[in-house]
């Protein structure tokens, strides 16, 4: 793998980072033990498979041109043992200890002179369950790309890749000579595309200005100042129940999950004695612009929608319908329009602007949205590592400057796993929010008649 310039959005994520605001995403994968497989076996397997993924051997370095730009290049002194380490958990409940430690590890920025990723094997007793915490810098991957990279450590994907490699027959197809100069039609097409991109970016910029807010009194916890600490909590939802609600009410499963998050926030705010906010908190809901199966671009391909989470609405069904209506409106406009499409705007800025302007832009995130809510797709098939079955995957999203909470969801094994990442001092009761989200799904399910004809 040679040198590759960072795409504009990747460069923005790279320069948005600070010690108090690390820009890595992650996942906590939990496994059941298998007979005869110990921590040393798993650690060795993680190292071998991670080292075989070319993307994980790349680091970021500055380049002379374009001015202010950076590029991915292979790290000549790459040592997988600096990236894959074992951490022994304290005695006690396994999940409690694993999530506590994962929160602490998510606080720590990745070392920028090395390939920006880390894997931690979190284990207790040699014959007990274990977890793997994966940290990937957002410049390295968006959610879909992170799944594709991380999937390479699993038995099924690794075996398929090895089989494909053994069976592959390389054919050297002659390429006809071609001038490096584009033809007149290509020049015209490139110019029209560029005009369209700039026009779209101007429209997004105007929408950002129109949707920016000066009144930030949404929730005392969500608007608390950043402490640089991180806390992690997890929740699990029944995917069949989510689908039952979707079939009864219409819309998508994601609409149901967004309504569950809104209702969970409402329950949590009321339980902690907070007065409900005068305006609904705004969620930034990322949307992938990466086509399924597309391999042309390794960089982030993202846009997003803005969604008011209807926490002031007391009726659960009305909350769901409000979310569905708002998301339908967002989808009608498309992911390349509106204030949520700030990533589209970032794609149009030159490298030098990202290098010096990213910190200023990061501080402005707070006036646009209050909480990140993202869904991460996972493979549907059962997965394992060294013969140890994968039980759950809890995704984790980074916190932008001025943000105290990020919610990430993924479906696996008939369950929807929810990963909550929060500022540790702003939300010390994050576990209560996780419980409130689980309770909200139960409450919403009770509104759906058992008999579809009822």
Tell me the radius of gyration: 23 Å
Provide the helix percentage: 25-40%
- List the strand order in the largest sheet: 5-6-7-2-13-12
The proportion of residues in beta strands is 15-25%
Pathway: Glycerolipid metabolism; triacylglycerol biosynthesis; Lipid metabolism
Enzyme class: transferase
Pfam family, one: WS_DGAT_C
Catalytic activity: an acyl-CoA + a 1,2-diacyl-sn-glycerol = a triacyl-sn-glycerol + CoA
Kindly describe this structure.
The chain is of the alpha+beta class and 454 residues long. Helix content is 37%, strand content 21%. The chain folds into two domains: 157 residues, 2-Layer Sandwich (Chloramphenicol Acetyltransferase); 232 residues, Nonribosomal peptide synthetase, condensation domain (Chloramphenicol Acetyltransferase, 2-Layer Sandwich), CATH 3.30.559.30. Helix 1 packs across helix 11. The radius of gyration is 23 Å and the shape is globular. The termini are far apart.
Notable traits:
single chain; 454 residues; alpha+beta; Chloramphenicol Acetyltransferase; 2 domains; six-stranded mixed beta sheet; 15 strands
Q: Mind sketching the topology for me?
A:
Layout (H helix, E strand, L loop, with lengths): L3 E2 L2 H9 L7 E8 L7 H13 L6 E5 L7 E5 L9 E5 L5 H14 L9 E7 L6 E8 L5 H8 L4 H13 L16 H28 L18 E9 H11 L3 H19 L10 E7 L13 E7 L7 H18 L8 H5 L4 H13 L7 E5 L8 E2 L2 E9 L8 E8 L2 E9 L6 H16 L9
Parallel strand pairs: 5-6, 9-11, 11-14
Antiparallel strand pairs: 1-4, 2-7, 2-13, 3-4, 6-7, 8-15, 9-10, 12-13, 14-15
């Amino acid at each position: 793998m040679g040198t590759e310039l960072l795409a504009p959005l990747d460069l923005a994520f790279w320069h948005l980072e600070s010690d108090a605001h690390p820009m890595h995403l992650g996942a906590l994968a939990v496994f059941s033990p298998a007979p005869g497989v110990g921590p040393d076996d798993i650690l060795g397997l993680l190292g071998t498979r991670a080292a075989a993924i070319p993307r994980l051997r790349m680091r970021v370095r500055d380049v002379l041109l374009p001015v202010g730009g950076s590029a991915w290049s292979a790290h000549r002194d790459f040592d997988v043992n600096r990236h894959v380490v074992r951490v022994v958990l304290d005695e006690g409940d396994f999940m409690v200890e694993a999530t506590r430690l994962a929160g602490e590890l998510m606080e720590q920025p990745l070392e920028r002179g090395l390939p920006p990723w880390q894997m931690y094997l979190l284990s207790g007793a040699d014959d007990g369950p274990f977890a793997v915490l994966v940290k990937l810098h957002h410049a390295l991957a968006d959610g879909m790309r992170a799944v594709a990279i991380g999937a390479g450590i699993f038995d099924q994907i690794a075996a398929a890749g090895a089989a494909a490699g053994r069976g592959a027959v390389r054919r050297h197809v002659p390429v006809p000579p071609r001038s490096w100069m584009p033809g007149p039609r290509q020049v015209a097409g490139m110019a029209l595309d560029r005009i369209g991109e700039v026009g779209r970016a101007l429209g997004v910029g105007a929408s950002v200005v129109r949707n920016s807010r000066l009144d930030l009194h949404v929730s005392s916890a969500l608007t608390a100042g950043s402490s640089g600490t991180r806390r992690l909590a997890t929740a699990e939802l029944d995917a069949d129940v989510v689908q039952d609600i979707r079939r009864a009410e219409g819309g998508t499963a994601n609409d149901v999950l967004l309504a569950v998050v809104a209702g969970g926030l409402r329950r949590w705010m009321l339980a902690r004695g907070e007065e409900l906010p005068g305006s609904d908190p705004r969620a930034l809901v990322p949307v992938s612009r990466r086509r399924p199966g597309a391999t042309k671009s390794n960089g982030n391909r993202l846009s997003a929608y803005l969604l008011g989470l209807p926490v002031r609405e007391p009726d659960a069904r009305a909350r769901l319908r409000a979310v569905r209506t708002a998301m339908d409106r967002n989808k009608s406009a498309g992911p390349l329009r509106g204030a949520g499409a700030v990533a589209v705007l970032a794609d149009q800025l030159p490298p030098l602007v990202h290098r010096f302007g990213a910190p200023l832009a990061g501080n402005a995130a707070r006036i646009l949205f209050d909480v990140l809510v993202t869904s991460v797709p996972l493979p549907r098939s059962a997965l394992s590592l060294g013969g140890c079955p994968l039980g759950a995957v809890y995704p984790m999203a980074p916190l932008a400057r001025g943000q105290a909470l990020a919610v990430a969801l993924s479906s696996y094994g008939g369950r929807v796993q929810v990963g909550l990442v929060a500022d540790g001092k702003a939300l010390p009761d994050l576990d209560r929010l996780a419980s409130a989200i689980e309770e909200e799904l139960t409450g919403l399910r009770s509104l759906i008649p058992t008999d579809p004809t009822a």
